[in-house]
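Appendix C reproduces, verbatim, an entry submitted by the partner laboratory led by Prof. M.T., so that reviewers can inspect both the input and the predicted structure.
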Amino acid sequence: MRKFTWVMLLWVTQGFTQTGDLSGQVTSKQSTVSNAVIRIIDNQQSATTDTDGRFTIPELAYGKYEIDVEVSSSKHFNTTINHDGNDLVINIDDFNLDTLVVSANPLEHNQLKMTTPVAILSEEDLVVDRGLSLDQTINQITGVNSGSFGTGSGQIVIRGQQGPRVMVLNNNISNQDAASVSPDHWITSEPLLAKQVEVLKGPATLLYGGGAVGGLVNVIDDVIPTQPVEGLTGAFEGRLSDSALDERAGVLAFNYGFEDRAALHFSYFDSQTDDYEIPGYAESRILHEAEEHDDHDDDDEEHEDEEEAFGVLENSSVDSKGVNVGFSIFNENGFWGVSYSDFDRNYGIPGHEHGHHEEEHDHDDEEEDEDEEHHEEEEIVRIDLDKSVFNVRGLHRFSESDFINQLKTHYSNTDYQHIELEGDEVGTVFDNQADELRLELSHRHLAGFEGVWGFQWSNREFSALGEEAYILPSETQVWSLFMIEERDFGNWHGEFGIRFDDQSVSTALFNDIDDNAFSISLGATFDLNERWTLPVNLSSAQRLPTAEEYFSNQSGADELIPHLATGTIEIGNPDLTHETANNLDIGIRYRNEGFSFNASFFYNQIDDYIFLRDTGLEEEEVPVFVYTQQNSTFTGFEADFGYAFYDSFNNQWAFRLFADMTDAELNTGENVPRIPAERMGANLDWNQGSWAASLDYTHVSKQTTLASFELPTEGYNLLDLSVNWVHYTGQLETMIFVKGSNLLDEEIRDHASFIKDIAPRPGRSISAGFRLTF
């Protein structure tokens, strides 16, 4: 009897541990997918697909597994499979945004496993929705707004925070430019080249430092190939618009693989627009009334200047071009790659013409000559920008038995310069020379935890030289250590991490300013059942002051120099210390048979919040602001509800409702300036066969919750419609699209913009384009 019991026990045990090869094929709508890496996340067993898209992972116990499917840096997915011995077919076109891996997170989770809210724009979304700058490309994501400066530039606003609190990355490395210095400086990430854009809402300081205390945006491209390429692949895209923008843009990209050993990338883009059309006057009615001007409908003679600013936003044109070259070498353990990129952009700064007014003449015959003289002497302000970047990027995977399982390396050298032109004369030259090194070590189980240990170092030499240079030249050096750990506990997943930053800022006129910051985070996602997930994140994140906040107008000169972009005089404060953001983020997610629901509520208390306070003083009629510190609180939410289904005629429909809101106050009860108004809206998507259409409606409320000396902003209704057609012929994919933007021709002004009252967004416009992929 005892022998029989042992035999039965052995038989039952073997039944539970039955193993077999996990075999399958990775496909797409066009063909099979070669050189895709399939990895079992729990034990890191992996395989690479062959030329027929097939793969095999030997002797794997039957059961449910979370797997990682990496086709390229922009086609990287996490999904769950059931291994039962049968052949597995993975069609990457069936994956949705929920399964896309968030590359900016070193733990490489998809959106549903993240403890903080994330939004992703895929390559397919970007083809139709690209804007002329990054802020215009992503400003329809809940919780994200634009601090626009015309179409040439603009800051990204995440949950009411912008500038030095929102970090922009390119392939997980800092985008070293001057965009955080001033809102009229272009964020040097070209949407035309993007394959994927990730937005992390809330503090991402633990991963990338204090510049991400408000959130971060990560732009993914294929400039450095991360997977072998089979033969020649590429894409060509062109787009045109009507006279409202008169956009002419083109992109050409090639990848060539030298078998499985190496790959070469080349891409080029060129984009141009004219001064764009607006529905009415450049100057808002609210500003007009505040300045006690006459009404717009007065006689023409009295409003000659206003008529010049009606219907077209002068000096808003953009001319941008760039080239990228990348090369990677592959081996069985990973890759090493290098790239060189060069961007040139010339764009106007609307509403910032420098005019030299002459005294009035008494004689009628001299008035016409004087008017011509006035226009000749009026100088428009443009920015001529050049940026070149050299990158080195590597990935080395160690043996499956090693404690350290992989090392990621990224080094970047940036040479950035832009010239502010006043007419044909050079006004101010901004120069930024920067180096950054980032290392990430991933380890296997340690007391049940897996995680990433990292080191980051950066050195930035920044200068502004010229008549309107209000910031002292400085050198900023930062080194950082960080650690992120995770573990699964049954039906919930936990994470914790810490980061330490040490910063030294030096100038010729002040002693070095040394400071350090410490950040910590605790997060979890609770699987309440198969449909509901509860993410929670608690963090304390510190941000160190920037050189601009320390040293603006600190040269000791007798005259204070205005910041033309904001129309103010800004005075830095060398006594500033780090600010601390204590943030609680609680969400809820629901997925079930086409229904989806996401909601996130945040409470962010920022101690020693650094901001520009209006002194009430003026210098030659220019208001004077001083950088100071005070406690503040940011609260708000983002929510969306969606439903996708097929009707009886095989039409695929997707409907979505969304809303967001941010409120921000200082501890004195005063409001923080330039906080976007609440908004809500709806999307309706239709798809059948080769055809697809999307209708988007957004209502933005009037913003009347204001800081001192801030003007309200009128609400608006935004209606967009796009239609596209996709056709496959062998290895060639053709996409043709038409998009109508601001179809109601509304006057749209972004409350977060410094120039909202003199530079509205474009009016109604129609654009069309095509994309060939092979």
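Residues 4-15, 296-307, 354-377 have pLDDT under 50 and may be disordered. Additional entries are available on request from the coordinating office.
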